[in-house]
């Protein structure tokens, strides 16, 4: 087992250490969630997407510079062909050697029933599953696809395989805000954690986000009228702030990019499936790691990572106002969830 200090840690201009890398392995998804994608998404040709070998090379460069946690995202990561082969390689190279503290993924759950057992065997210890409603009709409306029973089967399969499951619920005004309490009670009764997420102004969608934005400050105040919420020091490497619900014994997380941003402690960067490294979800600055790797190999990658740390901004500028343009033009599925 190895756990050596990195030769040159990734530290940005504000003194923040980057130890968490989110990697989108595909922009494709078998759902079309309304807040994530446009009605008629055009996906990238496969020739533009990083190969597994390139993804491994980029992750290896990050690990050598001090990244301790890698999350695979999409799109939907489990729809990429032979994705388990990539996870096997990352597990063998980095988890088994102690070079990573955690390898995990965020998924919509549709393919979990097929893969949960193997994921557990490869050292995946927990997964995040996007689930915005337990109502079949609403689920179909939000995802434009449906298949809620398939997702629930995947969630239970993950639990049965020994994976810890955290449910991510985007809070949407006038859509699922009345379901937050039932979702919380169901999740905790089944042994799942729940994290609520404010909708983010990424990409043009078919509605005005001002009509659907729900501040989690409001949600938290409502929950406090019904439950005893106790702040806890739990941290998972991401932006969520956690509280314990005393009546259920479970935890609830709040990701609040608008009502209370979390930029001061940002320790993460995002790699798209085409090799573009975004240092902030809410800004457009990026570094082309695919070109750096193909043109300069490992030295090129290291130089690009140094440049990325200089460019990493202090924070995002998310604002949702009526008829306002999105904060950034790219959809969430492009950057990676």
UniProtKB/TrEMBL annotation:
Cofactor annotation comment: Binds 2 [4Fe-4S] clusters. Binds 1 [4Fe-4S] cluster coordinated with 3 cysteines and an exchangeable S-adenosyl-L-methionine and 1 [4Fe-4S] cluster coordinated with 3 cysteines and the GTP-derived substrate.
Residue positions binding [4Fe-4S] cluster 2: 263, 266, 280
Cited PROSITE patterns: MOAA_NIFB_PQQE (PS01305), RADICAL_SAM (PS51918)
GO biological process assignments: Mo-molybdopterin cofactor biosynthetic process
Cofactor entry: [4Fe-4S] cluster
Keywords: 4Fe-4S, GTP-binding, Iron, Iron-sulfur, Lyase, Metal-binding, Molybdenum cofactor biosynthesis, Nucleotide-binding, S-adenosyl-L-methionine
Catalytic activity: GTP + AH2 + S-adenosyl-L-methionine = (8S)-3',8-cyclo-7,8-dihydroguanosine 5'-triphosphate + 5'-deoxyadenosine + L-methionine + A + H(+)
Domain Radical SAM core stretches: 13-240
Positions that bind GTP: 22, 71, 106, 166, 268-270
SMART domains according to UniProt: Elp3
Binding site for [4Fe-4S] cluster 1: 29, 33, 36
Binding-site residues, S-adenosyl-L-methionine: 35, 75, 130, 200
Enzyme nomenclature, EC number: 4.1.99.22
Quaternary context: Monomer and homodimer.
PANTHER family hit by this protein: MOLYBDENUM COFACTOR BIOSYNTHESIS PROTEIN 1, MOLYBDOPTERIN COFACTOR SYNTHESIS PROTEIN A
NCBIfam families xrefs: moaA
Its biological purpose: Catalyzes the cyclization of GTP to (8S)-3',8-cyclo-7,8-dihydroguanosine 5'-triphosphate.
Family in the record: Belongs to the radical SAM superfamily. MoaA family.
Protein name: GTP 3',8-cyclase
Source organism: Pelagibacterium halotolerans (strain DSM 22347 / JCM 15775 / CGMCC 1.7692 / B2)
Gene from which this protein is expressed: moaA
